[in-house]
Specification:
The protein is of the alpha/beta class. Helix content is 42%, strand content 14%. The chain is built from 14 helices and twelve strands. The structure holds pyridoxal-5'-phosphate. Pyridoxal-5'-phosphate binds next to helix 5.
């Protein structure tokens, strides 16, 4: 089928790709519904009842655009975090903010440092802006802060990406190590500290807001998609210095936020009791997943996220066969994309009904291989 002939050279050179195939596409492919949706690191415990009430209340106002300054959400976040509203940028999920950050600092051909096998949507944005990915291997199934710093010193990149805790392995570093890494960076390298999963991680792994808030070359990204159970709402935020935060105004989609979703996020912040309950549910579910893995002779890795990476002890083909086999039983999970991480499968925390389906299907799949 013909395509327009005058796309930019960069766009013409890019492969047609999607960072992740969604479970809906898999359902269309297998012709049946997924029964246990525990593959996309969504949070099946869902948003708080108070959030659902806020969504209902906001729904009738959906004829209005959202406040382009996101004033109320910024104010609520600032008071929750202990920073100023000017320290924040709001976006359509972290995914959107990642694209904006890449756009702010990357010209075609410039290097960007990340870990080999880290969050693919970030890579997607880098490639989409013509950046050159420089990857550093995981060491011991964890991102290698020392290796990333060496790569930064070698390549002088405008951008380095680091997720704490990380996806897809669920590993984490202590706050002190992260702060030391940030302070060791040249001022001309911007660090994205992706904290999508910080709410489910040990408190000792999250630097305080004050620890990094004066560093113009550090942007922390957070989301309502994970612990707050609002992945479909698409609300994320960046925390940085006032000066760096202001740069987002140059390129962001000022009317991009969904008014109902912003109201939902503002309500979610107020319901910290519910968040605490869900974080406990996620922890219990992680333990349940680990127990199911152990009962099947597989090795669950420690996780600070809402998912568990499980070492299946063999190669990527074996892990892939487990992922595909589980899907035949209606259990949707995923696996890391590159070696050596792709000897693992990755299962998101979920409700007990999901865990029972996993518990039933996994031994059957393993037996059939
Ligand atoms: C490390 C990491 N960052 C960002 C995201 C996406 O967050 P959002 O839904 O806010 O775009 C994910 C989702 O899986 C993730 O694992």
């Amino acid at each position: 089928m013909p395509a327009f002939s005058r796309f930019t050279p960069l766009i013409s050179s890019l492969p047609s790709t999607v960072p992740f195939v969604g479970p809906e596409a898999l359902e269309r492919k297998i012709g049946s519904a997924v029964k246990a949706r525990i593959g996309a690191n969504e949070n099946g415990f869902g948003p708080a009842p108070s959030v659902l009430a806020a969504i209902c209340e906001a729904a009738a106002d959906t004829w209005k655009y959202a406040d382009p300054e996101n004033f109320d959400l910024k104010a609520a976040l600032a008071s929750h975090l202990g920073c100023r509203p000017e320290n924040l940028a709001i976006g359509e999920g972290i995914d959107s903010l990642l694209g904006q950050i890449v756009r702010l600092v990357i010209d075609p051909g410039l290097p960007v440092v990340t870990s080999f096998g880290a969050y693919p949507t970030f890579n997607f944005h880098v490639v989409g802006h013509g950046g050159k990915l420089v990857t550093v291997p995981y060491v011991g199934d964890r991102e290698d802060l020392g290796g990333l710093l060496d790569a930064v010193r070698r390549e002088n990149p405008p951008l380095v990406y680091f997720a704490n805790p990380d996806n897809p392995m669920g590993s984490w570093w202590d706050a002190g190590d992260i702060v030391a890494f940030a302070k060791a960076l040249p001022e001309t390298t911007l660090m994205i500290l992706d904290e999508a999963y910080c709410e489910t991680a040990p408190a000792s792994s999250t630097p305080s807001i004050e620890a990094l808030i004066d560093m113009p070359n550090v942007i922390r990204t957070r989301t309502f998609s994970k612990a707050y159970g609002m992945a479909g709402a698409r609300v994320g935020y960046a925390i940085t210095t006032e000066g760096t935060a202001k740069a987002f105004d140059k390129i962001r989609n000022h009317f991009g936020m969904n008014r109902v979703a912003v109201a939902a996020a503002t309500a979610a912040l107020k319901d910290q009791a519910y968040l605490g309950q869900v974080v406990a549910d996620i922890k219990a579910s992680r333990e349940r997943i680990a127990a199911i893995a152990t009962a099947n002779g597989l090795n669950a890795l420690p996780s600070a996220t809402n998912f568990v990476a499980i070492d299946c002890g063999r190669d990527a083909a074996y892990a892939r066969a487990i992922v595909d086999g589980l899907l035949q039983h209606g259990v949707f999970i995923r696996m890391p994309g590159v070696e050596p991480l792709n000897r693992c499968i990755r299962i998101s925390a979920g409700k007990e009904a999901d865990m029972r389906l996993l518990e039933e299907a996994l031994p059957q799949v393993l037996k059939s291989l």
